Sequence to fold (274 residues):
Amino acid sequence: MNTTIKLVSFVAIMTVAVFSPNAKADVLHYDNNTPQVTDHYYQFYDTAVTGDKLEWKYASSFKVNSDNLDGVFRLFCVDQHTYTSNNFGTIEGQEYHTAALNDPSMDLYNAVQKNALNELFSHVYSTVFDNNGDYLDSTSVGAYVYQLAVWEIIHEQSGDYAVDSGTFGIKSAATRNESGSGSTVDDAFYKSATSLANSWFDAIAGEIAWDSIGYDAATDLTLTIYVAEGGTHVSQTFISVVNSEMVTPEPASMLIFGLGIAGLGLTRRRFIRK
Fold:
């Protein structure tokens, strides 16, 4: 009996250790109640991918929910050249491999990129979005610049982050007409957007202090990377800030953990009786 109890305890404890990985699969679903902010868009260039070709695109993030979390959260595209439809239908229900940005297993980005992403999110995110990933002010320039800044960090190859220079960036910006049937080049918005984004990058580079441009001390955030494991857009990757209150223990994990604790208790009782 003593040997059996010890064996059960050992197996349960080892199972908890083995089946508690830092990365796991998740399925994302678009939150249809939160439309994208698409009044402005940019004329992009990427000399490493498209050469001198200029492409007009929105830099807009998404609100989603997932099979592994409670509630909804904001999701940012990483691959600027992979199309994602406005209704998220092209990747709806696909399975994603998830891992923390700072996890050693997350090797998609180098140390400079990781540091820049952590700096951007820890200082700026809470000034643009609330805890549920909703825009604090959907009319502010920051609402139209944040996704652009994420793309700059991922795609820029010159080593110097700025959204209007280097190997990746924007040449101009436009405002969509009220009817949605056309657009007008908007120089004023282009200047305000590039100025704001580049001030963030100056702070990230340590050239200016965050508080000198109106931002508070860093907030401790855990960034999660979602990598598509299949489906139509297998190359699309996302980054998100997940509220810790949304994370719920999986039933199987709780059961295994309970077995481990119970096993420890039984082993201790047998030990004391000797």
Remarks:
- The chain has five helices and ten strands.
- Residues 2-273 form one domain.
